[in-house]
Amino acid sequence: MEEIIGLVAVLSAFGIPAYAIYRFFNQSDDKVEARKLYEQRRLEEIKQENYLLENESMRIELDKIRKENAKKFKALEHTGNERWLIEDSEEKEKDRAE
């Protein structure tokens, strides 16, 4: 019986610190995992912000291109009418000369 009590005392003397060390490592692993999850969430937020900014800049650039194309189209439209008027006036001048 004394041997069992001695064995329990020895196991308790080594078991309790071993359990404490085990708990400490688990807690530090949990802290690392929590930090990792926080960083992943923050990264996703940054990716979302970046996506929205890229879409906004692309929309602004597209509007700019549309305005430039509209100006070019109006310029071509104007030039087309002027050429027609020039050709028409040249024909009238030829008719008058004849």
Name a few traits of the molecule.
mainly alpha; 98 residues
C-alpha-based Rg, rounded: 42 Å
Global structural class? mainly alpha
Structure summary, number of beta strands:
0
What is the global morphology?
rod-shaped
SSE topology string: H
The biggest beta sheet reads: none
Mean pLDDT: 82
Q: Approximately how much helix is present in the residues?
A: over 70%
- Give me the number of helical elements: 1
- The first-to-last residue Cα distance is 142 Å
Proportion of beta-strand residues: under 5%
Low-confidence stretches: none
Describe how the helices and strands are arranged.
Blueprint (H helix, E strand, L loop, with lengths): L1 H96 L1
Characterize this entry briefly.
This protein is mainly α and 98 residues long. The chain has one helix at 2-97.
Structure description:
The model has no long low-confidence stretch (mean pLDDT 82). It is rod-shaped, with a radius of gyration of 42 Å. The chain is built from one helix and no strands. With 98 residues, the chain is mainly α.
